Structures are given as structure tokens and as C-alpha cells.
Amino acid sequence: MTDTASFLVRHAQVFDGTGAEPAVRDVRVRDGAIAEVGRDLRPDGAPVVDAGGLALMPGIVDSHTHFDAQVTWDPFVRPSPALGVTTAVIGNCGFTIAPCRPADREITMRNLVQVEGMSLEVLRRGIDWGFETFPEYLALLRAKGSAVNLAAYVGHSSVRTWVMGADATERAATDDEIAAMARVVRDAMAAGAVGFASSTSPAHNGEGGTPMPSRLASDAEMMALTCAMGEGGRGVYMVTKGGQMPVPFLEEMSACSGRPVMIAALLHNGTNPQAVFRDLDAISAANERGRRLIGQVSCCPLSMDFTLASPYPVEGLASWRPALGASGAALRATLADRSFRDAVRAELSAPATFRLFNGEWDKVQVTEVAEPAHAALEQRTIAEVARESGRDPLDVFLDLALAEDLRTVFTAMLLNSDEDAVGRMLVHPHALVSLSDAGAHLTFFNDAGFGLHLMGHWARERGTMGMADAVRRLTAQPASVFGMTDRGRIEPGLAADLLLFDPARVGRGPKRRVFDLPGGAPRLTTDALGVHGVWVNGRQVADARGLREDAPLAGRLLTEFAA
User: Fold this and answer.
1) Which residues pair with 28 in a beta bridge?
2) Rounded (5°) CA angle 458-461-463
3) Mapped to the 3 state alphabet, what secondary structure does 347-398 carry?
4) Considering Cα of 245, then 313, then 453, then 16, what sign does the dihedral take?
5) Which of 20, 146, 344, 546 is the Cys-Cys partner for 555 at CB 3.0 to 4.6 Å?
């Protein structure tokens, strides 16, 4: 449609990102920026895109991605541009690849394999390690270019490993080590980091089930590093919090740093249905006291495909730890052990504030068997098979996997399955719709199309919010949180990050598997529905067929953010 950074979109139903109702307008783009918005604008010699009643909105800002590694070998950060994303924030949860010394590269990759469901072989083949420090990493990204705009957190686990080496996963830091980490954070912020990201979630384990480094941090360390981030009057502190990290402490961190605190991952748990709303109430109370806290919520049901060779949904269970890091015969022996199974059963039967998997066996399906003799079990739930056989569902689950040498593919519907509850979360005034995890868990799930799902399912089909509000929550709202003053709205002078779509069809298609990772490894993807064009800084990167074969690397590395 357009191959230049100057063009005119005519007769579009313009959603400007502010939440205002749409109006039919023309939008002139000149040299990658929005030059004019009005009626009956003259082409002025530039190419014309006749929207013909389609809708035009700012590009989606995806605030929770893990493209840190992928972008070094795939500057197109597939599949996000084709799904309407024009800006991606990387480094969430603190699981970054920078800073990183050569001696720590292997453990960094192995940790990503465990915590973010990545392939070690893909990481070994793909990552360009042409950096050590965080500023050098930003320089690499700037030199390589990308199809979307990028903003990068400096990550706690990487900073901890840089300063403490192997001890980062073993103990609390000394005062001198905390001071050294604070210097790294300050340097990263000076270089253009969007903020500082961390995790205290018990589900976040590295190689062999070892806690990710940030989980060993004391409250004093967390406070010192967050305050170091905020010293320049910029930055967002992002944390995936565990139950031991209460919202009042995060409010203290916001008060100390003077900066917003982004809290993940707020997902609805059917076995503890009020927990997420208690967190949201606490976030509201903090905002009333003048502390800016934001909760990251998801508009997608959290479902995962997995095998017991890499069972991410259950790896956060304390009783599963004997199986973490085991492989081959040792892993199979552990999974068959009666005492191991009884411990898992006991933990699942006990109440918990937050757990990724809660023993809801009616939400675990046998998706694909490895042995023809078990074909009749496909597309059936573990609960159903257990009832028919008169056996405990955990035994059914483990015995089937063991009988197939851990090759059975299961699908678990884990969280966010109660749509009425999720709808309440999505319209909360201090919630940010997010949590795509794009770039991670590539063989487990793919929510990179979360924005299209919000517009299609929640706005058009369910009417949970109006389309104009859905657009605002995907564009102007996250841009404002991060201080991206030149994006997120259709307004003269702002960057021409644009998404042209059909409101009657917009959505995401079914997941499918492709084999385009380094070495031909597979990943899950999904296609856009109702998307007709995506522009980044005025250059078209996708059309109705998806990512353009000649898509330009039109994205910018964002390093300047308003206070």
C-alpha cells in the first residue's frame, strides 16, 4: 500500500487514542510524523490510502514482552508487528540478557530456558553477544534496527549476576554489592533504560529449579535499586510479585523513588477468586494517597501447551522441586515415586494466595498423544479420564506422560477463565491491559495478539468496554505511563505509528505452529483478523496478508522519556 514515510489516509474512522468517540477524518503523514488531521485534505502529491470506512488508531504499545534475546537475531520481532504492535517494552520481570559477561552467558541462557520456556539450542544459535554492559546492549539494538519501536528495562537478575556472579542465586547481597548494583542501574538509566524490572514470583525459577537471582534480594536491596532508578526523575519500576511482597511495600518503593510502580501479573484465580481484587483495591488506595501504582492485567485466558519434559505450569509448586533439574531416568523415577506424588497432591489441596496451577484437572486436556494406543484420550480432560477409570487425576496425568516417555502434549487452562471476573479487572481505573509475554514461552502459548483480542472479543463481542476505550487502553494509556510523549495518539506532531483495521472483524486467529526459529525450531503464532495495515514511524510494516516481505526496520530505540 505505502512504501514511503509520507502519505494520506482518507475517509478513516479515526480513534485518536484519547478515548474520544471516533470521527471520519483524513490523516496526513509527512516524513514519519502525523502532519495534519482534518476533512477533505488534499493529496499534495503523496500516495493515498483510501480507508473506505475502515478504522484508524495509534499502534499498540505492548508493555510486557520478552524480546530481549529474539530481537538480536530477528529484528522483525515476529509476530508482533503483524498484530498491530508498533512499540514493545522488553526486559520485563528482570529476565534480560544485559548486562552479561562472557563467563555468564551460558547460565543466562539456561535460566531463560527454564523461566521463559525458551530453547537452549535456539538461544545458542541465535543470540548476538556483541555487548557486555547494558549501554553496549542498547548500542547493539540501535545498530541492528527493528521493525517496531523498542524500550528496554534494565533487569534485576542480570544486574545481580553481573555484580555477584554465581552467588547471585545463593544468598543476600552485602551493602557493598548493593551499592555496586545501584551504580549499574544508574548507568543504565543514563544510557536510556525505560526503568528497572524485577521478580519475586515463586514460579520464576532458573536452571535446575534454582530461584532466579532477583528472588534472593532483600527488601533493602529492592528499595535501594528502585530508588537509584528514580534519582534522575525518570523510570518505571516493574515487578512480578510473589505473595510475600505486599502492595503496601510497593507503595513505599513508589514513595522512595518518586516513580510509578508496575505490578504483574494480576490474573484471576478461580480457586482464590478475590485475591486479585484485593490487590487492585490496595493499588487504588495507594493512588488515592498520591502513589502511582499500576496493575498489569491480561485480557486473555492463560492457557499453555506443555509436556512433562518442560512442565512450566507446575514448576512453581514447592512439592515439584525434586523434579526440577532432573532428566532422563532420574526424572522418570521422581515422577513415578509415590511420596513425590503424595506431596504434590497435598500441596494442591491446600489453599494458596497465588498459584499458577491449582489442581483443576477439568481444565487440563490431553492435546496430542505420542502412542497410537492412546489416541482415544486426545481432546479429553484429565478429570474425565480419571472419573471413567476410577483413579486419582494426578496419577492419570503422570502415568500417561511416563507411558509416552514424557512426549504427551497437554493443554492447561490455568488462570483468567472466568470472563465476568476478568471483565471487572480490565475496566479497573488503575489496571493496564498487558501481559502478552511476546518473545517467551514460544512452544507453550502465544498472546502477542492480546490487543486485537481486547478490541474484538471484549469491546465488540462482549461490550465490556467501548471500542474507543479499548483503543485508549492499548495506546495512550501505556504511552503515558512510560513517558512516551510522542506516541499513543493520533495528533499532529506525533509519530505516525498507525493501525488500520475493520472494527467488524478485528481479532486474533487460532494458534498454529511455525518452524522459523534458528535451526528450524518451532514456535506458536497466531494471525491477525481484520488488520489492513500497520505503520511504524510512517513506514508500512504489515498489511492484510501479515508482515510484509519487504518490511522496513522502521522502529526506533526509545531512550528519552518524560518525567
Assistant:
1) 8, 36
2) 60
3) HHHCCCCCCCCCCCHHHEEEEECCCHHHHHHCCEEHHHHHHHHCCCHHHHHH
4) positive
5) 146
d(CA 496, CA 48): 15
Report which residue type is found at 479. A
| Cα–Cα distance, 312 to 546 (Å, whole number) | 30
Are 445 and 524 spatial neighbours (Cβ–Cβ below 8 Å)? yes
Please give the grid coordinates belonging to residue 316: 512453581
What is the grid cell recorded at 386? Answer: 480419571
Cell numbers found for residue 293: 501504582
E strand intervals along 143-187: 149-155
Q: Is 312 within 8 Å of 441 (Cβ atoms)?
A: yes
> In which residue are the cell numbers 533493602 written?
220
Distances (CA, A) of 178 to 156, 172, 219: 11, 10, 11
The rounded distance, in Å, linking the Cα atoms of 331 and 334 is: 5
Cβ neighbors of 421 (< 8 A, separation 6 or more) are 268, 273, 276
pLDDT per residue rounded down to tens, the chain (563 residues): 566 789 999 999 999 999 999 999 999 999 999 999 999 999 889 999 999 989 999 999 999 999 999 999 999 999 999 999 999 999 999 999 999 999 999 999 999 988 888 889 999 999 999 999 999 999 999 999 999 999 999 999 999 999 999 999 999 999 999 999 999 999 999 999 999 999 999 889 888 889 999 999 999 999 999 999 999 999 999 999 988 899 999 999 999 999 999 999 999 988 889 999 999 999 999 999 999 999 999 999 988 889 999 898 898 899 999 998 899 999 999 999 999 999 999 999 998 777 889 899 999 999 999 999 999 999 999 999 999 999 999 999 999 999 999 999 999 998 999 999 999 999 999 999 999 999 998 777 889 999 999 999 999 999 999 999 999 999 999 999 999 999 999 999 999 999 999 999 999 999 898 999 999 988 989 999 999 999 999 999 999 999 999 999 999 999 999 98
Residue 365 CA: distances (Å) to CA of 253, 361, 385, 401, 511 = 41, 8, 10, 13, 16
Scan for cell 472479543, then name that residue: 457
Q: Describe the crossing of helices 134-144 and 175-191 by its angle, rounded to 10 degrees.
A: 20
| Dihedral-angle region of residue 307 (phi above 0 means left; psi in -120 to 50 means alpha; beta otherwise) | beta
Cross-strand partners of 266: 297
Integer Cα distance of 426 and 477 in angstroms = 13
Pairwise CA distance, residues 344 & 394, whole Å = 9
CA atoms within 13 A on the CB side of 467: 21
Task: Report the candidate in 49, 59, 111 with the shortest Cα–Cα distance to residue 85.
Answer: 59
Say which residues have a Cβ less than 8 Å from residue 525's Cβ, sequence separation at least 6. 78, 79, 446, 448, 511, 512, 513, 514
